[in-house]
TrEMBL record, chains A, B, C, D:
Top-level taxon of the source organism: Bacteria
Origin species: Candidatus Wallbacteria bacterium GWC2_49_35
Assigned protein family: Belongs to the phosphofructokinase type A (PFKA) family. PPi-dependent PFK group II subfamily. Atypical ATP-dependent clade 'X' sub-subfamily.
Assembly behavior: Homodimer.
Cofactor or coenzyme needed: Mg(2+)
Residues given in the record as substrate binding sites: 215-217, 260-262, 316, 370-373
Phosphofructokinase domain sequence ranges: 87-395
Protein name: ATP-dependent 6-phosphofructokinase
Residues with site note (Important for substrate specificity): 188
Amino acid sequence: MIKNEDFIVKNLGERTHPSPLPLSHSNDDLVSNFTNDDERFLHEISLKKVSQIISGTPAENACWSDLITFEAAGPREKLFFDPEKIKCGIVTCGGLCPGINSVIRGIVMELYYRYSCRAIYGFRYGYLGMVKESGIDPVLLTPDTVEDIHNTGGTFLGSSRGHQDVNKMVDRLMNFGISVLFCIGGDGTLRAAHLIAEEILNRGLTISVIAVPKTIDNDINFVEKTFGFETAFSIAVNSIQSAHTEARDSLNGIGIVRLMGRESGYIAANAALASQDVNYVLVPEIPFELEGPHGLYSILKTRLERRRHAVIVVAEGAGQHFFGSEAERGKDSSGNTKLGDIGIFLKDNIAKYFKSINFKANIKYIDPSYIIRSAPPIPSDSIFCTQLAQNAVHAAMAGKTDMLVGIWNYHFTHVPIATATRERKLINPESNLWLSVIEATGQPAYIGNDPIFLSKTRIMGQKD
Amino acid sequence: MIKNEDFIVKNLGERTHPSPLPLSHSNDDLVSNFTNDDERFLHEISLKKVSQIISGTPAENACWSDLITFEAAGPREKLFFDPEKIKCGIVTCGGLCPGINSVIRGIVMELYYRYSCRAIYGFRYGYLGMVKESGIDPVLLTPDTVEDIHNTGGTFLGSSRGHQDVNKMVDRLMNFGISVLFCIGGDGTLRAAHLIAEEILNRGLTISVIAVPKTIDNDINFVEKTFGFETAFSIAVNSIQSAHTEARDSLNGIGIVRLMGRESGYIAANAALASQDVNYVLVPEIPFELEGPHGLYSILKTRLERRRHAVIVVAEGAGQHFFGSEAERGKDSSGNTKLGDIGIFLKDNIAKYFKSINFKANIKYIDPSYIIRSAPPIPSDSIFCTQLAQNAVHAAMAGKTDMLVGIWNYHFTHVPIATATRERKLINPESNLWLSVIEATGQPAYIGNDPIFLSKTRIMGQKD
Amino acid sequence: MIKNEDFIVKNLGERTHPSPLPLSHSNDDLVSNFTNDDERFLHEISLKKVSQIISGTPAENACWSDLITFEAAGPREKLFFDPEKIKCGIVTCGGLCPGINSVIRGIVMELYYRYSCRAIYGFRYGYLGMVKESGIDPVLLTPDTVEDIHNTGGTFLGSSRGHQDVNKMVDRLMNFGISVLFCIGGDGTLRAAHLIAEEILNRGLTISVIAVPKTIDNDINFVEKTFGFETAFSIAVNSIQSAHTEARDSLNGIGIVRLMGRESGYIAANAALASQDVNYVLVPEIPFELEGPHGLYSILKTRLERRRHAVIVVAEGAGQHFFGSEAERGKDSSGNTKLGDIGIFLKDNIAKYFKSINFKANIKYIDPSYIIRSAPPIPSDSIFCTQLAQNAVHAAMAGKTDMLVGIWNYHFTHVPIATATRERKLINPESNLWLSVIEATGQPAYIGNDPIFLSKTRIMGQKD
Amino acid sequence: MIKNEDFIVKNLGERTHPSPLPLSHSNDDLVSNFTNDDERFLHEISLKKVSQIISGTPAENACWSDLITFEAAGPREKLFFDPEKIKCGIVTCGGLCPGINSVIRGIVMELYYRYSCRAIYGFRYGYLGMVKESGIDPVLLTPDTVEDIHNTGGTFLGSSRGHQDVNKMVDRLMNFGISVLFCIGGDGTLRAAHLIAEEILNRGLTISVIAVPKTIDNDINFVEKTFGFETAFSIAVNSIQSAHTEARDSLNGIGIVRLMGRESGYIAANAALASQDVNYVLVPEIPFELEGPHGLYSILKTRLERRRHAVIVVAEGAGQHFFGSEAERGKDSSGNTKLGDIGIFLKDNIAKYFKSINFKANIKYIDPSYIIRSAPPIPSDSIFCTQLAQNAVHAAMAGKTDMLVGIWNYHFTHVPIATATRERKLINPESNLWLSVIEATGQPAYIGNDPIFLSKTRIMGQKD
């Protein structure tokens, strides 16, 4: 059970340095205001739920403190660090994701031009470059070196997967005299950043660890949206259109598109919604069956007989029960449970099924994974990356640590890393998002034969 | 002063028909739930402000009712109309905007497949086609006719600007036996829709008028985002890149891009932020001067001397004081005050200035207006349009009227048209958005010579 | 040995109908001229080769007839058919290719508006729809039905692979009273079209069979360029950029992109040239080895040690000797020899190699096949498709048959199908095109260990 | 009258240095061959015309020499320069055009990696940077500095318009010890390059001047295609689609798109052909009238009455007779006759016309000029640029001078600058290209009232 105290952000210590930003506290001077630490945003905006929480407890203090709130991001008037005197480091880890370069660039520009911090190091190839033994030296980052990187995909610093020794990484931060480490990465990276922040505190050091969560799957808890996600589903739409064209133009054509989504199907759901050409979306959150009168094979056959073609979008983490238990599947180098390749599995097994019933189907399979991951960000993601970067720098200068910069209801927030990584954000099958998907695809709310679910999920009126 | 009662949505009457949607009230059946009318969302999510409002009043009822809240959009369990028996009409008015076709398609698909409404008429060429005298007949809309329209820009129904007689329009609705009118349009369209709804009530009719606000400028009050806006600033980025390339590659090159934004500079601000190549953003909300030591000419010259090129983005409504008072400028056919062409004005006057000081500058001017307006929506806008359409249909079937479908903090809402059109949504010069713009461009917070503002807005550290 | 008589195009008979096109024979009236049948274009444009051929033979007639020439395409003044009275059929076969819809549209528009032919049938799903037993009826095509199809990929008529009975297809043409059949398809389709044309002549019928060659691989002999090819390599560049980004941003990253090209590597060569980010291009025309000191493994390892990343582009038909003889590989439904999947093969074997030498490499594999095939044409291809279609109609109306519309040195030509399909067009390893590839990639002219080739192909100066 | 002697390319002197390129003279060694100076390509490929020319003269030598032929581009076995010891310069002049950076990059890469030339200077801001008095120093170009420039539009070196003193430019070449100057520019640039080459010869210097023609209008004589042109018309298609959408979706909407084309309408013609949405294309080569029963106003009105919308594409140099004589219009800084703005002229006058007849028309005007000029090249242009650059370097190293690299019938050629600039390449109104335009648009071959032309150009069957 999440409590409000899980949302208290750690501070390295007292803030004694004035911010160099020329902001104000007044509302009519054309100048933005500094943000105070006690500025917090509500997690819940349903009036009914908010009033239930508040009214449900006797003491006034108690009731307010039961409301989960996020600390507001933004520039602080007093800083913990003297920005001109410190060194900062940036590291990017894990798979590629659109926008990493915009975040790097944004951090460098903000540090350099707004806070006059001149010593900015980029550790290369992820956490690997933060271990002395790798033999990989960091590079000095200046506005000149990063000026144009936002227009290209990938990460200017290089990346890698896999764990490194936390002690060695903290050693290297000490060796280089780094005061702030910006970590750009996904779930595994964030967990490691938390361990680094803890080791720093154990050693009594005052090094700030600020994360910008990078997960193309958009699955970080308490973060409404992660950068690169909008770009990802936007580009995925192209592959769906290709699959649709291929399916439609051959007799009984079936287009299958495998998209990212290890535990959360947000990319698949949004890409399907945007394209309007998808008939079935399969996501990790909602189990499905292949066999039986209400399984995928059967409803797919019915659709082909009626419409001659079909498009399936499947998130990479969907249907993992076909590949055995998590224990049987083992872990990859990033520490994630290995996934069976559900795309190839569906392609092969659907082909087998139709062959077995002597029904000539034409299956076309598209896996655009790297094409999506390596793309530059679309403009809305560019803006988002820049703002995440600016707020990450504000947080770091104020001496915040062990936190990530998130967004909730359009407001930038600070979230303790441990809280955000406790569990993944998943699609709620009863959410408006999923309802829109079902309405747009016309697929049954439940693809399987369990009589209890079947009775609850009367098939919704189908679309053609 | 806006009060919570301004957010009460009108209903045509008692709801007696069961919804054909197979939804539930339970949270564990894989089936989405119906939305109740008392589901409301907070306007304000700052904990400090919320608690101030609530604590500031003695009686519990009173305090809660001081909080501004929006009625939640979504499918209702009981309907006012029997959807299979009614006729619906759709009309699209005003200038083009990316996504209109997706909204039309979404309304038709939702009416047809989810509510089994089969009589859907599209009025052609805006309100003009709603007046019998135009001689323009409506077209019957079916899933087949709208299936592929979302992939193209513009409006399948055609559009027009200008006012029509409200009585004649209501006459025609009666003649055709229309029970629901969906109006897709901007400020002027919404005001007319409000008048139509009032005339309907005056006549004692039960015709629902539901609006989907269409303003590429994103300037509807109490609506976080309007459809087409994200597409607009995304495409505008291309023109900025062109202007940047042209400016950079000639000696003392100045690229000027005029973007949409009659009263609100959101497109200019976001496009500039996304491109990172802009040096000055001029918006209607913030006045600026050309002459004098701190005017635009002077800071532009300084920039050219230092960097040899500059890029200016100007919203069409910026700097209107250069063209005389509103009275002097008159009104256009949509009833908006005519705007002087600030783009051409700047291009000509900046050229004159540099000629007058014998400084050879190369000015390149880009006005991508129609290229942006006529584009199809980007994927995130496609999704948004579809969801707006679905919620518009839900609202209509429930017998809501004189309202628009909006969004606030990611939740779809119902907003009375009169409330939303009372004034425009503007960029707050002290908001985080504008701060990001200033940080990204390096432009002064104030471009002018007024000593009071100058003293308040110390020039922020410039970017190169 | 190809002789000039192989380029004589068959005619159905005497031309007695005047063309409805308002063209002229004069050069100063702003009106284009009709084309005569004796207008022919030189195959060879090298002065040296042309003069050798002509001078090499004694009799003047003989020498000119030794020059291979193509019959010029274009509108004829007299027609064999009376266009208002005949029925035409269109069929599209084989895999998708950008531009099919533009060709269909172009044929329909030209027939309808220029020749006033009103009975135009589209056979559906390839040759399958030309066999009565399929139960698939043709559709009537009009300007209205095809007006917007050029903006989408795929084929409006559907397609299929595989052979159908030639007699049954001719039967169906007779049943429908078709006078002209337009066949849009690749090598297999063209061979079948030739058989259809022969069967028609055997039966003493006067049905014209005109082909528009559709091969994304650009491998039709005596045809400089096929439609869709430019689009194909243009889109392939995106996948190469993705592979480059993925490779560059991980330590020892290897990006592998598999592109189309069963027997000819034109797409791979051109995409690599356009991207400038490729290090090795492997095509069917040039054998290569994996093992040994000069094999691919070895030079790849050297490159990684020097530059940390590499990009390989491989045409699907390259390296087929790794999969056994043609006999061992068998045939697919279109009658082509089955291809081993060289992309997956390289990916797996390169991974094995680096594992075996304990060298940590990161391999990213991209196969954009369907994304490319299903795309709409780029503008230059749109134009090309339209002009091919116009010339196909001109040829048909003149009573030409058993021929395809090609292009040579920018001039549209008529080529007998049997001549064009005798063998495939291949990249000449000593051509300027391949020289440009080698210069742009820096790859050795020969990747293998044969000492004779090694001595001839001194390694060209490498690029970084 | 052009004669074959006009196509003889100047050489600086005897070639004594062996080429470092590892090419051969044999056809079966996987290695490309060197090109000999006597390799020439025919200008004319019509068999009839070629045989007429040859047969028309008595002496065999004479008859061959009457055939116009181009010297083949390509690597020579012996070089005039020792590439490791010389310095090269590159200059880019005039307006932006897609692909300039690819040409710069291609020259640098070829010089550096293939010829081991290490001293490559880029003169900045066009010919201005070649004059000492400008105070602008050249930059040293290496593979590192140009590696990624091909992915962005514009010119890495900057550009300028206008004349500079030829003597001063040659002085500067001498001061820097430049042996080869690569000039990338349009008509004016080429004329200046010719003057530079002549001054060099006058001074007895051995500096090679090699041009790569850059004209987005594609109007260089004896050059089939210039770089950037395909990109230009490809991007222009987007603006036409916008104009079409805007026109179609308002009542009596007229979309006007102004495109580049000072004297030649190739961009307008090709963009119109590719889009298929244009009704009237106006180009400089074909005069037209506005008034009268067969003028533009009248046929436009008829079209609106029939179809409710129309799209006009106008090349910037069309209809210049509306603005007075060339003398009256004067010259711009590049020495070209100033053009009246035909786009604005048409927009204003068409509006006036319809107002005068009380016909409510909606005119939307798009001028995408800088958006097109500043774009990066499409892939086919990238390849073309690279190959032009490679051949420019081959020519320079062989000691050719006062020539440009062109292409004719897909073969790269050398053309003396004076010959290529003698007159512009224009669209022949009776060519297949223009016939395709007329067929695709359905516009009359002649828009005007001259009875002689009217009688010759019976109106071709119109398209809807």
